[in-house]
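Re: [help] complex structure
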Amino acid sequence: MTSAHSDLAWLLAGLGLVLVLASAIGFVLERRLSPEGGNAVIENLNARIKAWWVMIALMAVALLAGKTGVTLLFGLCSFAALREFVTLTDTRRGDHWALVVAFFLITPLQYWLVWTGWYGLWSIFIPVYGFLLMPILAAVLGDTERYLVRVAEVQWALMVCVFCISHVPALLWLEIPGYAGRNVLLIAFLVVVVQGSDVMQYVWGKLLGRHRIAPRLSPSKTWEGFLGGALSAMLIGAGLSWLTPFTALQAAGMSLVIVLMGFFGGLVMSAIKRDRKVKDWGHLIAGHGGFIDRLDSVIFSAPIFYHLTRYWWT
Amino acid sequence: MPGPAGGMRRAAAGAMRAAIVLLAHAITAVRGIFQGIAPEPVQRVYFANHASHGDFVLIWTVLPPRLRQVTRPVAGADYWLASRLRRFIGRELFDAVLIDRNPATRSADPVTEMALALDAGASLIVFPEGTRNMTEAPLLPFKSGLYHLAKARPGVDLVPVWIDNLNRVMPKGGIIPIPLICTVTFGAPLHLEPEEPKQAFVDRAQAALLALSPKHGETA
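Output below.
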């Protein structure tokens, strides 16, 4: 067991403890407030906590399995997210081949490129090659009905669901002096801060939330929730600096960036949901909705976190 | 003929059915929405919109295994007997009730065939549009088979089932399916009213099915 593994084990044990505590609180709340399952908030809370057990277990397996495991896990997340995204777009018969290419060629290739560590190609593969190839395919197939809208939707789907998410496993290939063999902790840090911020925003919002930030976009986002969540996540981040190449202050700063990007990511993805008149992206993660509902903040924070770390620490 | 070879074929068909259900889940993450009925072991005729060859697989996938075992699709014999592979899929894999859609050549009456299958205890999946819908319209006008079946077996629940999005997963001419999320919505059961005229019943069945479509609110 390397020191990275033992640090990871400590972190997972801590998360396990938090979940045990959360499950206990959920159990007590259910007994007292919703014995017959009548309180929707409590039921949803408990469904979310249960789903967290599964998500953390999967994450733990992937992180312990190393580069291949993490790449596979996030590749599958991209696949599920892309499926949710494309479901909400208005594709036509003429998009069939473009979508086949997006799902079965571009997505696996992107993750394969990440896996080979070829930064020069994976970091431009979708924004350059995908960007140019997709409209060509759609044009060659000849359906010009709502052409620009359809092309733009597929571009967005690939950028959001595949390109952005693929920055998470890519963290494993950053060469940070004095940090060799510990990169897996960088992912753990990112994921814990992002999801911790989401959870703490939810908790603070439910406890104190009064003033809505964007009532038209998201009824559940409040100033109290946001500020409480952001401060909590920065504290969590600073407290986890021992996992990272950052000092405590740097870790807090990184956490702030992660939290801000994550927050706005949630807002952007909510805008798309409102536009499409749906409440959730999917139904596969009980209590949370779809993969994009859970990943929206990761999608927007991962690329920025990756590049800040790459620029200043490698 | 239940010999050793027949047993092997049945086991192979069973394994393939399980694989097909797994594949349907992987591609469409399909979710059954039991709005008007519960997924209970009651004999039913499910009537659904038809836009893709995968339609009945999807209905089948969302049914609990015990219901799946007794639910047989009704399909056109002209198509499903046309080659050895299709015969295997139609007969062995899905145990379809194959009916002759051409009144001029057929020897057996389709409604009688379906009624016999019901009498033997099966539930049925039928597509009253008669053929795959390749148009932009949400539904093609229903054929009258559903009415005649309702008349022949008035006690059976006729359950409308809306399959959403599968036509986008596998459009006509496509070979590779696109992964998209599909839903299968089951509505409240219908019965033929005493003295109800044919057209009134067909219209009612059609409206009940269309009402389950998520896009119905936007287009209507």
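The longest strand of chain B covers residues 157-164.
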